[in-house]
Amino acid sequence: MAEKKIRVVVAKPGLDGHDRGAKVIARAFRDAGMEVIYTGLRQTPEQIVETAIQEDADAIGLSVLSGAHEHYFKAIVALLNEKDASDIVVFGGGVIPEADIPTLLSVGAGAIFGPGTPTTDCIEWLKNAVAEKRG
Amino acid sequence: MFEGKQLEEVKAGQERYQAAVDKSLARSPERKARFTTTGGIPLERLYTPEDVECLDYAKDIGFPGEYPYTRGVQPTMYRGRLWTMRQYAGFATAEASNERYRYLLSQGTTGLSVAFDLPTQIGFDSDHAMAQGEVGKVGVAIDSLADMEVLFGGIPLDKVSTSMTINAPAAVLLAMYIAVAEKNGVASDALTGTIQNDILKEYIARGTYIFPPKPSMRLITDIFDFCSASVPKWNTISISGYHIREAGSTAIQEVAFTLADGIAYVEAAIAKGQDPNIFGKRLSFFFNAHNDFIEEVSKFRAARKLWGRIMKERFGVTDKSAQMLRFHTQTAGSTLTAQQPENNIVRVAIQTMAAVMGGTQSLHTNSLDEALALPTDKSVRIALRTQQIVGFESGVANTVDPFAGSYAVESLTKQIEDGAWEYIKKIDDLGGMVSAIERGYPQQQIQDAAYEFQRSVESGDQIVVGVNKFQVEEDDSARQLLRVDPSVGEGQVAKLRKMKEGRDNVRVKATLDDIRAAAEGSGNLMPKILDAVRVYATEGEICGVLREVFGEYKENVVL
């Protein structure tokens, strides 16, 4: 049996309109053989979690360039826990200061990819993270 | 531009040169099989008079201040006055931003540029559920006139020109600015500045839209009309290619989509019975200055020439100043790297040179730390100093349009003009920009270009110094970054609540009802909005009423 494809939700939480990175990474995931659901702009944490559960996603990738990263990562991880969906891997990228990364990892982000990260690094990390999760 | 005999000599020279090139290539190949600009325009090894053979100096290039304005919009350009050095700034509270503006003015900046936070840009008050976590983050939080009074406290609004990056709710923020000036005894006809007010590029690339296209276009044309009579020195719109380029477009697409947006605004205002000879004088533009120096210089020249042609030939505009493309420039944020951020100072310097060689009217230079966070005072100062060094030390501002006559620049100017023209025709065929956006056409073009660029970086074809070549191990832990105090949101909400208790809520309701009635009808909304902000109706309340009447835009997600 062929291995089940990775399903990933690429999401833009909040009011931030910078979607270049989100769209580039979404296409890169798709070209790497994953099934990608891109949410579009202005998603609340509730909408993102809802989408991920409905789409039976393995992972949620958050793109935040507005400085509000801590708020959104915390809110989304908390909602996933609340809805018994904490097996969904959360990761992200954007304009995020190095010094904030430990906090985001400690609240449940699997990885944070800063500006200049090759898409291949994100793809490789996500493949491993999902493989680990699936056991 | 050259006569028969001269061209023959050039052709003979070309043959000798080609033989020499062949010999050289036989010994060692060139660095790349194919050279292009960042935007993908093929670059010749050498440009000669043959490449500009098709150009007519008087018709295509001309003189500064004369149609088609290829060489600039003023006769003396920077010999008269340098460009306006205008640094985009704003964060946290009105108090903190006011302090930054006064600092910038004391350091020699010559115009203000206000960055609003996202809730303000999208018409939500700081206490709205969607504003959570975003208050004061990417700009200053403005809920009502009370915040605006603090923001411009102690700043002479009759002397300083102010640019406000505000789009969907531009009418509200402009009204607040007028109301603050009134309170300080400055009449609206003395105000100078710009509101961005460019909704089409929000749908295409920037994302801070509220209403659907039709009522959005109405708000914009209401502002044109209101300002023609009451704020005549105000730039009523800044038609922006900046964000289109940041989203990943090529240089040609930046010019094409921006001017196609411009065409849509001009058509909308004409449809309302307004005269392009009048409102056309207050249209301004905003472009990106990227790394590819020659392409960028050419791009600015091509944009100016094309717009002149569009206004004159397409819209029959005879007023010279309504034919001129005047523009602000910002250096390219997307070229800044988080790796070895000091290198960004050099990138910004090159981009500054390109903007100045391209004849910009005002310029914002990015700070070295902007791939990491909002800039610190020190990094903002370095960015401003970069402009000052180019202006006062480099000598490039001392003669007008020094790259004119360069075979390469003239040839690229023509290529960008022709390439952009093709796109504009395509958009016309799609029924104009609004319809093209609804079909996702410009969005798709930009995304394809962005993805292509990313692939070229990952393949190593496009070198980004410090990112895919010349990397070093870095320790960023000690880096000083600007941090917005997390309590800003709560403080702003408390301030808002207190303000609402202290105002005349009966009058607020009456003015909001007036706005609703005007929105349902077809009269100009600006006077009604001005009445409401004067009695401290909040931005969120005003936009809330308009949301109810106009509805909200739903993004056409294109991937």
Oligomer: heterodimer
- The dominant shape of chain A is globular
**Total strand segments of chain B:** 9
Gyration radius from CA atoms of chain B, angstroms? 24 Å
CATH topology of chain B: TIM Barrel
**Overall 3D form of chain B:** globular
Question: CATH homologous superfamily of chain B - what is it?
Answer: Methylmalonyl-CoA mutase
Helix content of chain A: 40-55%
Q: Helix- and strand-based class of chain A? A: alpha/beta
Count of helical regions of chain A: 5
Q: Can you give the mean pLDDT of chain A?
A: 95
Protein described:
The complex is a heterodimer of chains A (135) and B (559). Chain A is built from five helices and five strands. Chain A has a single domain (7-134), classed as Cobalamin-binding domain (Rossmann fold), CATH 3.40.50. The mean pLDDT of chain A is 95. Chain A has 135 residues and is of the alpha/beta class. In chain A, strand 3, helix 3 and strand 4 (89-94) form a beta-alpha-beta unit. In chain A, helix 1 (20-31) crosses helix 5 and helix 2 (45-54) packs across helix 3. Chain B has 559 residues and is α/β, with parallel strands linked by helices. Chain B has a single domain (57-458), classed as Methylmalonyl-CoA mutase (TIM Barrel, Alpha-Beta Barrel), CATH 3.20.20. Chain B has 22 helices and nine strands. Chain B has a nine-stranded parallel β-sheet with strand order 5-4-3-2-1-9-8-7-6. In chain B, strand 3 (161-165), helix 6 (170-183) and strand 4 form a beta-alpha-beta unit. The longest helix of chain B is centred in the N-terminal third of the chain and has 24 residues, at 4-27. The model of chain B has no long low-confidence stretch (mean pLDDT 95). Chain A binds chain B through residues 14-20, 23-24, 26-28, 30, 36, 38-42, 44, 66-68, 70-72, 75, 95, 97-99, 114-116, 118-120, and chain B through 118-119, 121-122, 124, 129-134, 137-138, 202, 206-208, 246-248, 334, 337-339, 371-374, 447, 450-451, 454, 457-458, 464, 467-468, 476-477, 479, 481, 484, 555, 557, 559.
